Amino acid sequence: MTVKDYARKLKIKEKLLYYLTLPYRLATAKRRALPDFLIISTQKGGTTSLLRLLEQHPQIHAPHTELHYFSNDSNYQKGSLWYRSHLPLRSALVPGDVAGEKTPGYLFSSKAAERINEDLPNAKLIGLLRNPTERAISHYFMALRKGTKQHPISEAMMTREERPRSFKKRGPKEINLWLLGDPIKRKKHGAGEILDGDWDLDTQTLGRSNKFVSRPLYQSIVAHFKDGVPWEKTSLFQGYLLKRMRNTGVVRGVNNMQELIDKYNDKVDKLYDSVRKEGILLPSKGRPKIDFMYVHIGRGGEIIWTGGGNHRLFIARYLNIGQIPVRVWWRHKKWQKIREKLNADRSRWGEDWVKPYLNHPDLEDIPQRQK
């Protein structure tokens, strides 16, 4: 019997049953099994359907909830006992029984890969891939149900260049970027890759956009730090974060709005004070762990926003900070060839085709022609 079936039998909500049983499960966590398998995939990739099929076998046991243990820092910090509290008791298993869990997000998380390799080196990984078109359509209707999509599917399936102007996503207002070079090149995690293809054509560039200031996060930063509006009264909390909490039950590693408010009052306020007083700092012995924005470089040198570091970026924009440090994640193969040409022959810096790139921040590490 699944958790959902048991909750239905008791005529209570599955989420309520989860919290009612949590103290007992934590108390017995040391006597619970670790997973023999993990189901990883992409969102709308078929993991729920696969788990429902597997649950029909009497010797397969898995929680219905996605645990996000290895991919979520907050959950991982809760420790292995919290993780094991979701899994079956070893005494309830007979020879031949196996336990597992499904969390699609593990497939794309480099942290999850490292942690799984360290904590569950013998676990089997079941990866699911789905026809991209079918997956995109399924994702669209899920977003439509949640209210995060408004435009018709015919427009949602277009590239950003094909969509009507009002539906195109815009990057933030142009900011001069201070590139810090590549991160540690661990190929299995995709860092420092040189990629060919058209991946750079349908992305958000860090270009000029008047719509940047209309983003809920930016508006909320202005309202909170300029006008003194409490975080919970901002449009970010009243709209997007509240809706996401209701739909998923977990936002930024916490499972209720008060914890999320406390987190913003603590971490985001401290981040703002730090940026306001000292700018965006570089790593040093006293502060070795600083999270930077990561960017990709397109074929023509376009600086492409990966979507990370929103709070840091938007605070810098609000404070009119002219430069922010970022790290390069991917470079397009055609752009890399330009870098290699200029690095191999310094005389080419004087050629006309190079003029548009003379002040490009991703070429600052390449020596220019001696004057």
What does this protein structure show overall?
- With 371 residues, the chain is of the alpha/beta class.
- It folds into 3 domains: 3-127, 3-Layer(aba) Sandwich (Rossmann fold); 132-167, no CATH class; 176-363, no CATH class.
- 37% of the residues lie in helices and 11% in strands.
- It contains 13 helices and 9 strands.
- It has helices at residues 3-10, 14-27, 47-55, 73-77, 80-84, 110-119, 132-146, 153-156, 216-227, 235-248, 257-278, 310-318, 333-344, and strands spanning 37-40, 60-61, 98-102, 124-127, 176-179, 193-195, 293-297, 303-305, 323-332.
- Strands 5, 6, 7, 8 and 9 form a 5-stranded mixed β-sheet that branches.
- Strand 7 (293-297) and strand 8 (303-305) form a beta hairpin.
- Helix 9 crosses helix 10 (235-248), helix 9 packs across helix 12 and helix 11 (257-278) packs across helix 12 (310-318).
- The longest helix has 22 residues, at 257-278.
- The termini are far apart.
- The model is unreliable at 160-191 (pLDDT under 50).
- This is Sulfotransferase domain-containing protein.
